[in-house]
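WARN no homologs supplied; continuing
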Amino acid sequence: MIHKKTSLFAVPFLLMSTAIFSYLTLINKWNFEVASYAIFFFTLLYILALERIIPLKRKWVPLKNSLWTDIKHLIFSTAIFDAFGKTLALSMTIYIRENTYILFNFWNTFPFWSCYIIANLIGDLLPYLYHRISHKGNSNSYLSLFLWKIHSIHHLPTSLNWFKTNWIHPFNMFLNTLLKMTPILLLGFSKEIIFLVIITHTVIAYISHANIQTRKSFWDYLIVTPQIHHFHHSINIKEAKNFSNTFPFWDLLFGTYYNRKGAVKEVGVIKSSKINYPKHLAYYKQLVFPITTFNECCK
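OK structure emitted
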């Protein structure tokens, strides 16, 4: 009974806690960077605790032999290239604003909460499209197969947990961030809205990959929950949908939403005789995999 209640309130409690802290940050004018780190570490500890209390699958528990690869992905693939993406997005925005007359100063006429929702939906659109295209993997197209090989690094793990959120090719991370941040920066949303968008994306990204028990509920139509994102990683191609990162709005709109009762059975990449995927612990080979196998196409 306790575990059932815990799984029911696990996601809402995290969202409520981080929302309250974010609200306090705004009204007290706390440093955004410090607040972001505080929320990140709270989310980390919260998810790690839940993964011990209500794990979805015992076999998904982080293994010691993969910890070093997990850390490499966290530092080099995620943190550094996320920063690169934000830096380029900001630089492009500054340049465009200084050299054009395009100004969007009307957002202050909208309610704050509506700006927050609109900014999240706009920020999710281009990453959604890029994500969806990356899954095509057309064997007759160099570009399509190249994009899939880049994204396939995120799908290599045969388990999901907090650490596996960070398993992503640096170029994939860079593009995700660039495509998310550039539109909302160019459209002139306030720094407070930008802060909330980043916090929302970070919290949901990590909780959606968590190895925790959840149940099909109305939350699955509001945010990207573990329930629906686990299916995205399924080796069953019929389940491997749900390409949105934060809110499932674009999936619902474009017909790529998937959900059902129960949990995903197996996750990972579908084995193919045409693609020799790198081994799970071979970080360097994962980085160069899309390049070294680029010519293995269209034969």
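The mean pLDDT is 91.
OK
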